[in-house]
Amino acid sequence: MEKIAVIDLGSNSARMVLVNILDGGHFVVFDELKETVRLGQDMDWDGFIKPQRIAQTIKTLSMFRRLCDANHVEKIFAYATAAIRRAKNAKGFLDEIAMTCGIKVKVLSEEEQCQLIYQGVINSMDIPKGLIMEMGGSSTNLIYYNRKNIVHFVSLPFGAVTLTDMFKGQADTPEERAKKMEEYVSQEIGMISWIPQVEADIQFIGVGGAFRNLGRISRMVKKYQFSQTHNYEVPIKEFEAIYEQIKKLDLNSTMKIKGLSSGRADIFPSALAIMRGVLGKLQQQKIVISGCGLREGVMFRYSCPQIVEKPLQDVLGHSIETQVKYFDINVEHAQHVYDLSMILYKQLKVLHKMPKMYLKVLRVAAYLHDAGMRIKYYNHHAHSCYMILNSNLYGISHRELICAAFVAAGHRKGSDIDEMELSKYKDIITPEDVLCIRKLAVILRIAESFDRSMSGLIQGLKCDVLGDSVIIKTESEQDCTLEVKDALTAAGEFKAAYGKHLEIL
């Protein structure tokens, strides 16, 4: 298994992720580091990165290099963005990094940066058309895409750090300063010719540390019980309420905000003002926060080079495959359980009448129901639930992921779904979801029983609904007594979920 490192040397912070490259075009992050370096701070005065910023960055990258060496990383991909792209002393700085740290940093052009951000987003979110806003310390990138193709992009020459510097001391109160920044950003956005062409039904996707902090604050305000950043949604009304509160605060008060990292407190109001300036030109109902961006774009490109020409067509499927490989799940068994689950789901539709969205839920639960085996066999259904909840799967909403985890939790005999644990997510899932979780868990349990020997004996199924009974006829060329006997142990749960007696022939 190959190990690589990806370093993003941004205008505000330097980030590194260490990555295991798996066979078949997959990757898993196994460590990360982040340090605030503020390369873009005070650059507007003369165009030079300041000596103290250079020293801090060299120290940070030396630390990154030591971690890479300790983990036997084979390749380091290091990229610099806006601040170094514009710096007059960039060449000397990069030469010093190469000589001191042994790391060769590539300075991305605006187009290359936007391409990598786009590839990180489009291959991790099931959103066919959207406007990506990626905000760094010295630049703000807007990428408009439709049908998985970039239509327009622009890199604006200001970010949270540079805007903070630009408006320092230009107003008597924080609120007045925020208003001036909003007006400036709105004016700049108004000069982009293609902004009026952005369709109203696109999704607005936020990328970068400011958006991740916004998501954390939102989750804390709502006491949101699911901690995953990727695919978290912030309604515009909620964003406005957060902004209205924060734009009035001085630095000391801002630093006390729960969910906001201390290294971002001084520039966060500026970041919110940039968001407000952009959103003011659009008609959006929510911000979808992406936990993936430039670094993930690099990972996807390296592990799965074909995405350069054509993005993944099945984001969720690729992400599931990654987890199957990482958790060393029996692929043939998982595939067969999924196939049998789908047959049962479709043939029992007259009874369960579940909407199409639950197909995605069943798919995740069927493929990953044995993930908990990586911990231990006993009680593995509960371990699988935890692992799915924390899998950070791509291409699936928080609501769907929670449902899938609890479907997997109910796939074993005697594995009653934990009502108290499920109730933690009552503000995310609906009462209808709870009923569907129980129905899907029974389907998954029967499907797994039908491959109890893990030899694929049962090739097909036919379900007949007759009066107060459901009769499942198995298709097999060999004796499948074990499978039928095991599946019949779910008869009580089937009656409770579907109101019918279960018979299996």
Structural class: alpha/beta
Anisotropy-based shape: elongated
Number of domains: 3
Number of strands: 14
Q: Which stretches of 5+ consecutive residues score pLDDT under 50?
A: none
Biggest sheet, spatial arrangement of strands: 8-7-6-9-11-10
Distance between the termini: 46 Å
Beta-strand residue percentage: 15-25%
What is the assigned CATH homologous superfamily of the largest domain? Hypothetical protein af1432
Sketch the major β-sheet: 6 strands, mixed
- CATH topology term of the largest domain: Hypothetical protein af1432
> Can you count the helices?
21
Determine and state the CATH class of the largest domain: Mainly Alpha
Q: Which CATH architecture of the largest domain would you pick?
A: Orthogonal Bundle
Measured as a percent range, the helix fraction is: 40-55%
What does this structure look like?
The radius of gyration is 26 Å and the shape is elongated. The strands form 3 sheets. Strands 8-7-6-9-11-10 form a 6-stranded mixed beta sheet, sandwiched between helices. It has a 5-stranded mixed beta sheet with strand order 3-2-1-4-5, with helices on both faces. It has a 3-stranded mixed beta sheet with strand order 12-13-14, covered by helices on one side. Helices cover 46% and strands 18% of the residues. The chain folds into 3 domains: 2-108, 2-Layer Sandwich (Nucleotidyltransferase, domain 5), CATH 3.30.420.40; 125-291, Exopolyphosphatase. Domain 2 (Nucleotidyltransferase, domain 5); 315-504, Hypothetical protein af1432. The protein is built from 21 helices and 14 strands. The protein is α/β, with parallel strands linked by helices and 505 residues long.
